[in-house]
Amino acid sequence: MMTHHLSGPLIGNIIIIVVFGLGTIACFIAAIAMLLHPKEKNKDHPKYRVLRDDR
To answer: Fewest C-beta atoms under 10 Å: which of 36, 49, 50, 53?
Structure first.
């Protein structure tokens, strides 16, 4: 099994990178979806300040 000289097994590092990379991508997708299609109906909600046309 291949190991890196400063850390654990290479496959372990790859698994950690993939898992946390997918988590990061999922967070960005959720944030963009919530920004573009907010479920909040109150027009005074702070999310709508970001989406105003005059910005």
So the answer is: 53
Angle at 39 between CA 37 and CA 45, to 5 degrees: 100
Q: What angle do CA 47, 55, 50 make, to 5 degrees?
A: 10
Per-residue model confidence as pLDDT tens digits over 6-22: 666 778 889 999 999 99
Could you tell me which residues come within 8 angstroms of residue 4 by beta carbon, excluding any fewer than 6 positions away? 10, 13
Q: Is the pTM of this model over 0.85?
A: no
Q: What is the distance between the alpha carbons of residues 13 and 34, in angstroms, rounded to a whole number?
A: 32
Indicate the Cα dihedral angle 28, 29, 34, 39, nearest 10°. Answer: -150
